[in-house]
Amino acid sequence: MSVAVWAALAGLIAPGDAGAQRTSLITGVVSDSLTREPVAGVIVSVDDVPRDTTGPDGRYRVVVPGLGVHRIRLVQPRFRPVLGGISFTVEVPRAGLEKTIDVAWPDLSLLVEAACGPIRADSAAGTVALLGVVRGIRPPGPLEAVAGTDSLAQETRKRRKDKTRTAFVGRAVPVRDDGGFLFCGLPSRAELWVYLKAGLVNGRSRRIRLPFAGYVEMALDPP
């Protein structure tokens, strides 16, 4: 998948001695690649340090310290769980430089397909991707998201009846450090229970009914 990023040199900051300046400035507008509307709530980081968040007009303004090549990363919390956002590099050959970089934010469905592969929607069956995020503060240590056809209460009852049933029947995926998780290739129109698991401690399960094809989003409380 390619993401269009346009960069144009806007000019130099003239006041004073440019050699004495230690920083440069990057500004721009983040807009939807399909509608061309501004995208709010995008966090803009420089070398993995958050510097600004776009407002309703999609504009951002970040200060870049020092010379050399710097990594600019843009993420939106709603998409952050698995899709990672957009990254590009900017070279700063001299201090006091000012650049304008406008970014076309890709459609979410394109990002989902980039992470999961093509979403199938033929006449017989479809596939669904589930994007999730931990609501609130992510607990420390390994954390998994689990999805299955039974709730935790139903699973407990089945284990009491069947002593050989030792594991939850379903799928588990790791939760990333940023609190996001992704299930790919879930069955069409399925009804699933999803919860978070930290070791032997389980969070509250939540029921979700999947569509025929495409993707859905959900937030879960930590265990």
Descriptive key words:
mainly beta, elongated, 3 helices, Immunoglobulin-like, 223 residues, five-stranded antiparallel beta sheet, 47% strand, disordered N terminus
> Count the strands?
16
Give the tally of structural domains: 2
Radius of gyration using CA atoms only: 22 Å
End-to-end gap: 36 Å
Elements, N to C (H/E): EEEEEEHEEHEEHEEEEEE
Report the major sheet: 5 strands, antiparallel
Would you mind describing this structure in some detail?
The chain is mainly beta and 223 residues long. It folds into two domains: 102 residues, Immunoglobulin-like (Sandwich); 112 residues, Immunoglobulins (Immunoglobulin-like). Helices cover 10% and strands 47% of the residues. Strands 10, 11, 13, 14 and 15 form a five-stranded antiparallel beta sheet that branches. Strands 1-8-2-5 form a four-stranded mixed beta sheet, with no helix packed on it. Strands 4-3-6-7 form a four-stranded antiparallel beta sheet, with no helix packed on it. It starts with a strand and ends with a strand. The N terminus is likely disordered.
